[in-house]
Amino acid sequence: MSAIPIPEIASGNPSYLAKATALKARLNAQIPTDLRLPPSVLDDLPLDVTGIPASCGLLSAAELAITELDATAVCQKIAAGELTAVEIVTAFGSAPRSHTSSYPA
Predict the structure, then answer these.
(1) What is the rounded distance in angstroms from the CA atom of residue 4 to the CA atom of residue 26?
(2) Residue 58 Cα to chain centre, angstroms
(3) In a domain, 4, yes or no
(4) What's the domain range around 69?
(5) Where does the source fall among the domains of life (predicted)?
(6) Looking at the domain assignment, is residue 9 inside a domain?
(7) How would you write the pLDDT of the chain (105 residues) with one tens digit per residue?
């Protein structure tokens, strides 16, 4: 799996650029490779990325169903004993993230 792409930064002083590069490298180091989207997905992102979790293969059917719930439904399922906090955290912790945001570090 590839590291998070670090876009070229058009402006900024050398101190800022060094800090931004270091922070992005730290972020890359903290994301387990088995939770990264494959380069084939990242290299050709569709305009509508909402289908990626279902098609990327990182989530089981049960985890995908959990991540599609809204907060109210999650709470109701916990209260009814249908889901545990561990299941919910695992599902959302495994949900794919591209981390290709365009905001500065």
Answers:
(1) 11
(2) 11
(3) no
(4) 14-94
(5) Eukaryota
(6) no
(7) 556 666 665 567 888 888 988 999 998 898 888 888 888 888 888 899 888 888 888 889 999 999 999 999 999 999 999 999 999 998 988 876 544 433 343
How far CA 37 is from CA of 10, 13, 19, 71, 73, in Å, comes to: 26, 32, 25, 25, 27
- Both tokens of 71, joined, read 């907060």
List beta partners, residue 97. 36
Look up tokens 């089981």; give the residue. Answer: 60
Q: pLDDT tens digits for 32-51?
A: 888 888 888 888 888 998 88
- What span, in angstroms and rounded, lies between the C-alpha atoms of 73 and 40? 33
79, two tokens: 């209260």
